[in-house]
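Action item from last meeting closed. Structure (168 res):
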């Protein structure tokens, strides 16, 4: 589910139309095979309950966690690390009782900043018993997608990933 930010033409902010379309896709896929898991990925936004298609249509819940100081998206009062963003978003979906994935994780900034944020993120994972997977968004983001006319660079080199995350 994409927020109604203008980033994508399909993100229109109509919850009932979204639920109807999601269910239609799930039903169509199920006529072809029973071997598909369906991930409802509301990004973890505040109004996600309005977009929930129902337990019969969702196998896993996906969250987006983007740690970007220059994106002008942090709450008043300061820094929001990847770990604190996950804490907030996980709390919004935990009561569904379904497996959770971070379907998009990205940290912008210097290698030192990425290391600090990813270390904190990794140390926090024990708090989330429903969390089953994390996918890192290893790319430069879409120009024009973020406020403040900034284009985040989420990329991390394989050697950096190995030394920072995998080796621990």
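Sequence:
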């Amino acid at each position: 589910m994409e927020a109604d930010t203008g980033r994508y033409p399909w993100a229109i902010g109509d919850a009932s139309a979204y639920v109807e379309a999601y269910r239609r896709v799930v039903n169509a896929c199920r006529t072809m095979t029973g071997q598909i898991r369906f991930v409802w990925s509301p990004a973890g936004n505040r109004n996600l309950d309005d977009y929930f298609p129902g337990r019969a249509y969702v196998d896993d819940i996906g969250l987006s966690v983007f740690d970007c100081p220059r994106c002008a998206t942090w709450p008043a009062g300061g820094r929001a690390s990847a770990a604190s963003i996950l804490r907030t978003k996980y709390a919004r979906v935990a009561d569904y009782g379904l497996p959770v994935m971070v379907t998009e994780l990205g940290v912008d900034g210097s290698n030192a900043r990425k290391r600090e944020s990813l270390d904190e993120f990794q140390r926090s994972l024990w708090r989330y018993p429903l969390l089953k997977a994390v996918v890192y968004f290893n790319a430069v983001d879409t120009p024009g997608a973020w406020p403040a006319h900034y284009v985040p660079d989420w990329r991390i080199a394989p050697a950096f990933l190995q030394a920072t995350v995998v080796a621990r």
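Note appended to the action item: The beta strands are 39-43, 60-67, 100-107, 131-136.
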